[in-house]
Design brief:
heterodimer, A: mainly beta, six-stranded mixed sheet, B: mainly beta, seven-stranded mixed sheet, about 5% helix, globular
């Protein structure tokens, strides 16, 4: 069975400071990892994904994520947070041996304060 | 290109009534997925269509839920009769090829917020 954990319900950060949203996963096969963001009253927007290759993945809006196989983690990062980054962030995984469905973490609310 | 669209954006119904949600995928996307997030918990997979065929419906909670995709274009998700625990946000997503081939991205719609009273 595949699972995803986002250990922090909320992350507070001051504008201009680095932002990290944590994600760990468990799969039996090779993982395909995704980050989505949900802004208030909006749907899920795709940010970035790791399929294979370079462990550091760059995505939309200046976000990046690092795949760490030994720690089974895929933390989302942004060097300098903006107030407009305040949103709900979801990590998702697809297990290469478990069909097409995505398994999501519980979500982490990010609040960037001016 | 237009993204995934869902209708209605909100629905408030009473327990025992029927509700039908609609999803229009991105044009040309053969793969369509339904997910839901209830009570602020994790987003859970419901089912996956490839064109008009149900590829995986392992996440459908019970037989009160019926999904269709006639003609392989838009899809509907009917809940009949609705129960209180069905309240939540129902998301639809689409992709051009299944994840199994290239880790293809699923693009999500804005969701339908369902409240069962």
């Amino acid at each position: 069975a595949q699972s995803v954990a986002q250990p922090e319900d909320q992350v507070n950060v001051a504008e201009g400071n680095p932002l990290t949203v944590k994600c760990t996963y468990s799969v039996s096969g090779n993982p395909y990892l995704f980050w989505y963001v949900q802004y208030p009253n909006r749907g899920l927007q795709f940010l970035l994904k790791y399929i294979t290759g370079d462990n550091l993945v760059k995505g939309s809006y200046g976000f990046e994520a690092e795949f760490n196989k030994s720690q089974t983690s895929f933390h989302l990062k942004k060097p300098s947070a903006l107030v407009s980054d305040s949103a709900l962030y979801f990590c998702a995984v697809r297990d290469g041996a478990a069909g097409n469905k995505l398994t999501f973490g519980g979500g982490t609310r990010v609040l960037v304060k001016p | 290109e237009a993204g995934v669209t869902q209708f209605p954006s909100h629905s408030v119904i009473e327990k025992g009534q029927t509700v039908t949600l609609r999803c229009d995928p991105i044009s040309g996307h053969d793969n369509l997925y339904w997910y839901r997030r209830v009570m602020g918990k994790e987003i859970k997979f419901l089912l996956h269509f490839v064109k008009e065929s149900k590829q995986d419906e392992s996440g459908m909670p019970n037989n009160r839920f019926l999904a269709e995709r006639t003609g392989g274009t838009y899809s509907t998700l009917k809940v009949q009769p609705a129960e209180l625990e069905d309240s939540g946000v129902y998301f639809c997503a689409s992709s051009s090829t299944p994840l199994i081939f290239r880790g293809e991205t699923q693009y999500f719609g804005p969701g339908t917020r369902l409240l069962v009273l």
